[in-house]
Amino acid sequence: SIMLTSITDGLLCCLLGKTPNAVGPLDSVESSDGYSFLEVKPGRILRIRHSVPNRPALPEEPEEAAESGTVHCKRRITLYRNGQLLIENLGDAVRSEILQCHNPSGEPGSTVELEMSETSGQGIPGCVGTGRDGMMTPGKRRKRKPKRVVTIDCKKRITSCKGTHGDVVLFFIHGVGGSLDIWKEQLEFFSKLGYEVVAPDLAGHGCSSAPPIAAAYTFYALAEDMRAVFKRYAKKRNILIGHSYGVSFCTFLAHEYPELVHKVIMINGGGPTALEPSLCSIFNLPPCVLHCLSPCLAWSFLKAGFAHQGAKEKQLLKEGNAFNVSSFVLRAMMSGQYWPEGDELYHAELAVPVLLVHGMHDKFVPVEEDQRMAEILLIAFLKVIDEGSHMVMLECPDTVNTLLHEFVLWEPDTPAGDG
After folding, report:
1. Rounded CA gap, 199 and 233, in Å?
2. How confident is the model over 85-129, as pLDDT tens digits?
3. Among 14, 106, 157, 308, which one has the highest count of C-beta atoms within 10 angstroms of its own C-beta?
């Protein structure tokens, strides 16, 4: 009966030119029960879950020593015309006692030479050479003229962020087909610990308004929405947590606001490749056809997004309001994923500490992609959750919450003045 209803709705969609199940614009922007509505542009309204802890007025925290937790980020990145990327780390490595760092290029004075992918999404390109211990080593190179050279030389203060700190905000950004409800366990966990948390519904998702034009769902349009949300709620130290496509918006904000973004957490976000929509994709079909296929798509998502497909997982999808968007929005989101600037060089320029969380059974994002991301980033820690898949925050909430909290509290152990 669900399939029959979908086919009927799909035919009506084709005949009448309407978008089925589209979320309508909201009349009110009033706050209630921790939810508020932010008008990022006229008629473009996003639902926001904003939780501010009821903490008593705390005394001013004493300023820590200027060099405490300060790392010296020094890196030279050379991009050659053949697409090769040469990364030279000139500063000291950041050592962590709570997480194992899987970033082979994190050693002081190390050099990494990488081949950039010629086409986006066509597998993970390999490195030029690999040493006996699995660490990247540069292959033989002929002298050639570089296309671009980027030098990063800055000092970054990375401190522990506790729930009692009034200048800390945690931002949670979901991916395609999700909603802020997928973060339910994380929002409750961090709110109880005294953190201020912010989680938006992307346009066309959850209870946010759904503009009826495809241009409203391009990467740049959504990135500007996230910029508006960030500017509205950001404080001195901001931690960005993204899932899947939401990771790209976290990367964008970290690049745009390096002084305000303190740490970034990327959950099943994939490799550091420029976004480009696939030309041969089921999502290029007309919205009415997609709508007819929606039960099959939902089943496929359940199959690929979870390590197990039982009643519990179906309930988690329902509670998380995931994959509950109109076929028009879904098609526009997938075809709007165009972000040529977000290549490996763009990611290599980031000087913010990043935690990469990967569900081992993820059928959307291979673990090799997150390993690639760890190689490119300056300060990165990769943690693989064996029992998790793409929706790991729903499947293994306790594991994810503990891991995130450890990283939020992490502070590099560096000698004063040495960086």
Report:
1. 10
2. 899 888 765 644 444 444 444 444 566 665 544 333 333 333 333
3. 106
The DSSP string of 59-96 is: PPPPPPPTTTTEEEEEEEEEEETTSEEEEEE-SPPP--
In this prediction, residues 359-364 reach a mean pLDDT of 92
Does 273 map to a domain? yes
End-to-end Cα separation, the chain, in angstroms: 64
Q: How far apart are CA 333 and CA 276, in angstroms?
A: 12
| Helices 311-319 and 294-305: angle between axes, nearest 10 degrees | 110
**Model confidence over 301-345: pLDDT tens digits?**
666 778 777 777 777 767 666 667 888 898 899 899 999 999 999
- The CATH number covering residue 396 comes to 3.40.50.1820
Give yes or no: 361 in active site: no
- Catalytic residue, candidates 50, 291, 358, 390: 390
Which residue range(s) make up the domain with 252?
156-409
Number of domains in the chain: 1
pLDDT at 10 over 70: no
Give residue 70's pLDDT.
85
Please determine, for residue 63, whether its predicted confidence score (pLDDT) is greater than 90.
no
**What are the Cα distances from residue 124, in Å, to 201, 245, 368, 391?**
31, 18, 7, 22
Give the pLDDT score at 297: 63
Q: At how many degrees (to 10) do helices 219-233 and 246-256 cross?
A: 60
Note whether residue 161 is domain-resident. yes
For residue 297, which of 214, 122, 388, 176 has the smallest C-alpha distance?
176
Active site residue 179: no
Asked whether residue 349 is domain-assigned, the answer is yes
Average pLDDT for residues 210-234, to the nearest whole number?
97
Count other C-beta atoms under 10 Å from residue 76's C-beta.
15
Report the alpha-carbon angle 171-367-383, nearest 5: 55
Indicate if 165 belongs to the active site.
Answer: no
d(CA 323, CA 305): 11
Distance between CA atoms of 271 and 400, rounded to whole angstroms? Answer: 20
* Tokens 């910029």, located at residue: 227
Residue 262 lies in a domain: yes
Catalytic residue among 9, 201, 362, 370: 362
From 117, 244, 248, 327, active-site residue: 244
